[in-house]
């Protein structure tokens, strides 16, 4: 556990790095922040923080930058002490959203827009029906040995279909067997039920690569039919961040964010705990393409009227601002 002084030095370094996206030196901290200690003490504290993995020095002649571990320590302290300023501002935003939206879809769109504007990051709002759509019937129709159609009927009466292509020949009998297996496992369950099942042991039932491939197509089929219920704004603001100025840094991220199904899995996994807020930093994200970003997510509503609101930004995000914005959005949507 960090001493109070070391925690202040780490917090000042993070604040400076968030603001300027440049490595931070001891002189900068001494001149711009009232740390109450001498420059020599600041240099010593930075050296200790680096040795313990909270900060790193990208180049020998440069200042330091926070590591994922450093950000995690900072965020945990922020949440533990509930030291979030400007709370009234975000409460007012939530109230304005509720008053200005005449229906749910309008509220979802306005909430996503407000989040993107407040945070300069990518905002995502999933409507409750996306997570709680329940499967009523699954039909797999063989077209050729290498192609089939997946048809999914949900309990709320929607019908979704998707074409599937196979790399190996798949006979109609094999397709029927897979249909029976998936129907037994999925019918009556929501997407969030399925994702939690996949996280807690259902994978063993789908160890066959072909069955798992068809399962992914079924989930994609439902998600594609629900794309209008996913409100996503702020991609350009996210990609304008200096961390993503190089193609090799941005491509893995874009590939993940363009896949609505993967995004659904990520957000549902992030909010599958009992905590009201989830903050995943850098390599804490299970999906490799998100190792350079942080995801702040929260559920809103209850039961079958439960959805997800999230912000995705660089690990160098302003966590205080983003956490408050996500909480305000969750409050606005939860009381709608």
Automatic annotation (TrEMBL):
Keywords: Repressor, Stress response, Transcription, Transcription regulation. Pfam families: HrcA. InterPro entries: GAF-like_dom_sf, HrcA, HrcA_C, WH-like_DNA-bd_sf, WH_DNA-bd_sf, WHTH_transcript_rep_HrcA_IDD. SUPFAM superfamilies: GAF domain-like, Winged helix' DNA-binding domain. The keyword Glycoprotein does not apply. GO terms for molecular function: DNA binding. Gene3D superfamilies: 3.30.450.40, Heat-inducible transcription repressor hrca homolog, domain 3, Winged helix-like DNA-binding domain superfamily/Winged helix DNA-binding domain. GO terms for biological process: negative regulation of DNA-templated transcription. Residues 105-323 form the Heat-inducible transcription repressor HrcA C-terminal domain. Negative regulator of class I heat shock genes (grpE-dnaK-dnaJ and groELS operons). Prevents heat-shock induction of these operons. Belongs to the HrcA family. This is Heat-inducible transcription repressor HrcA. The lineage of its organism: Bacteria, Bacillati, Actinomycetota, Coriobacteriia, Eggerthellales.
